[in-house]
């Protein structure tokens, strides 16, 4: 395996994490801005079940890929903490997606 192969693989992993970050952010906003109002305003609890399940799957993928990136990129505890904090803020994943751009 050459250095170029390793770099390409690392870039691909980072790109995948960035896209999962973006998808997780969108799912979080859909849950907050669509699912919750439908549940409490229109008495449609199924909306939060759908958006909540989607967000939960993407959140778990985000955490797993964040850990993978911590190992691959050599992030320190502070950087990893910022990445984890970004996952629980409504617009955090969008900021993270942009900040990880090369």
**Percentage of helical residues?**
over 70%
Radius of gyration: 16 Å
* H-E order: HHHH
Main sheet characteristics: none
Low-confidence stretches: none
Structural class: mainly alpha
General form: elongated
Distance between the first and last residues' Cα: 23 Å
The proportion of residues in beta strands is under 5%
Number of separate strands: 0
Mean pLDDT: 89
Q: Number of DSSP helices?
A: 4
Protein name: DUF3817 domain-containing protein
Membrane topology: Multi-pass membrane protein
Domain DUF3817: 14-102
InterPro entries: DUF3817_TM
Describe the structure.
By secondary structure, the chain is an all-alpha fold. Helices cover 85% and strands 0% of the residues. It contains 4 helices and no strands. Helix 1 runs antiparallel to helix 4 and helix 3 packs across helix 4.
Question: Which helices and strands occur, and which strands form pairs?
Answer:
Blueprint (H helix, E strand, L loop, with lengths): L2 H39 L4 H28 L3 H12 L3 H8 L3
Helix pairs in contact: 1-2, 1-4, 2-3, 3-4
Structure at a glance:
It is a multi-pass membrane protein. By secondary structure, this protein is mostly helical.
Tags for this entry?
102 residues, mainly alpha, 4 helices
């Amino acid at each position: 395996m050459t250095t170029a192969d390793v770099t390409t693989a690392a870039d691909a992993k980072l790109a995948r994490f960035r896209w999962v970050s973006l998808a997780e952010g969108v799912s979080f906003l859909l849950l907050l801005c669509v699912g919750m109002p439908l549940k409490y305003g229109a008495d449609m609890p199924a909306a939060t079940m759908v958006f909540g399940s989607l967000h939960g799957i993407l959140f778990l993928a985000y955490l797993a890929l964040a850990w993978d990136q911590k190992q691959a990129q050599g992030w320190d505890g502070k950087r990893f903490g910022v990445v984890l904090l970004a996952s629980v803020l409504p617009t955090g994943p969008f900021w993270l997606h942009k900040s990880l751009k090369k």
